Amino acid sequence: MIEFVNITKKFKFHFWEKEFLALDNVSFKIDQGDLVGFLGANGAGKTTLIKILMDFSRQDSGEVVFSPALGKNIEEIKSSIGYLPERAYLYPYLTGREFLNYVGEITSIAQKDRRELIEFWSQKLQIDSALDRRIHGYSKGMQQRLGFISALMHKPSFILLDEPLSGLDPIGRKEFKSILRELNNQGTTIFFSSHVVSDVEEICNKVVFIEKGKLIYQGSIDELILQNTDDLYRIKYFEQEKFNIIHVHENDKNRTLSELLMKKANIIEIEKEKPTLEEIIYKIKK
Amino acid sequence: MKQTLIVAKYTFIEVYRSKVMTSIFFLALAVLVMTYIASEFAYGAPAKVALDFGLGITTISNLAMAIFIGSTLLNKEIEQRTLYMILSRSISRSSFLIGKILGLSVVLLTNTLVLNLVSVGVYVLLGGVISKLIFWAAYFSLIEAFIVLLFAVFFSLLTNTSLAVIYSIGIFTVGHSINETSKIFFAKSNPLFHSILNVCFFMLPNFYKLNLKDFVIYQQNISWDYLLNIQIYAILYIVFMLLVISQVFKAKNLD
Known about the structure:
The complex is a heterodimer of chains A (286) and B (255).
Chain A: E1 2-11, E2 20-30, E3 35-39, H1 46-53, E4 61-66, H2 74-79, E5 81-84, H3 96-106, H4 111-124, H5 140-152, E6 158-162, H6 170-185, E7 189-194, H7 197-203, E8 206-211, E9 214-220, H8 221-227, E10 232-239, E11 242-249, H9 250-262, E12 266-272, H10 277-285
Parallel strand pairs in A: 3-7, 3-8, 5-6, 6-7
Antiparallel strand pairs in A: 1-2, 1-4, 8-9, 10-11, 10-12
Helix pairs in contact in A: 3-4
Chain B: H1 2-17, H2 19-41, H3 46-79, H4 82-87, H5 93-125, H6 132-158, H7 161-181, H8 185-189, H9 191-203, H10 207-210, H11 213-217, H12 224-251
Helix pairs in contact in B: 1-5, 2-3, 2-5, 3-5, 3-6, 3-7, 5-6, 5-12, 6-7, 6-12
């Protein structure tokens, strides 16, 4: 659906300063129907890459290739994209409803559909009661919810979110994640950046990981975990009136189990030890 | 075009609800009080003084609005990321930019209408007679503010807000003085200075020609040809500036 080909971006803030390499030859692909998490520490280059995708910022070399299904020119392509920037500040003197009408009108959504979509999404994201208040009275989380609606209301086929879960309370995070999963199940391709690994692991099927402007990994989360999983098993058993846990290698698993059964131990649980995505990312970074 | 008008509409609503409209109200009140006070000090021609004062304050407030709002118009949007929410839609950068400028022009128009209405009202109350020239002077003052607004937006795309304000004030000052400067003996006799002035004369807006206040106050007549030529000049200058600003904005990295 979207392919980044050898994207390089340098910044130079003053002529006497050395160039700062924000993105170094980054290439990866987002396929239709994927739910991709874009991981990287603060300053890794995630937002820069997203800005290049949206044509806000221009790369020094490389290109972004859009599939023809998204549109022929940048304006058509943008109408297929739902975008939410990081920490989006909205127009403070407009009301929430006016802001949604503004983006709806720009996207040429008919007035009747607009009204229905605003009602539907504002109720789903629980800001319907605040829609007629001016945005400067909104909390950070409410602004994030309003921005999220504006990214979704024109039913885009590709959703691009920059740190969408920041500033949200735990309930809000859960709601956002559930909506993303729901939309992905309906066929929408989603690409969202985060520095919280557990969020990505929870809902995404693929991950792109960059570090200091360089691509470290792209692909399936399950594969990444499998590649980094040692063949260790955790056995929990009950013996002599207490619980015990032992870790054994796959080759010793059956033998250990036999020994325990012979000792008449009660086997409670056998589980293959699987590291979390966070642990793997931390290991790769080191 | 439709999208430009949508941006203009919401830009106007946004500015209308900000403190700008409150300042217009207080300015109108100030015009009312000050023109009355000024006319009280004038001997023999209080109406004329009131009108002169009113037109002057309108011009200055329009310019202040054009410079300060124009210089922050886009920088604020980039800093606060509000522009990303709109530019991520199927709208071209030019349509967005022209829509923003159009929205602000409606604010300038409102300011011109309100303040001129107040000053003309005081003028009539003090016995002045309404002439067509008053409306021409107000209209040209609006055009002048619009050109300054375009310069402020242009500079804000190239540099930071403070420098954009300084450069715009510079353009306004030079635009007003260049006509008279080119007439002084030193300018005529020094070939280098004369050439520089000639370049400036063609490149920079000639605001002197847009200033009809003296004609209004001294009740001089202006030919239709003059008014038409100045309008053509202003329109061409505005179109040229809009093209330049659009190109700069298209090429700008919105980092």
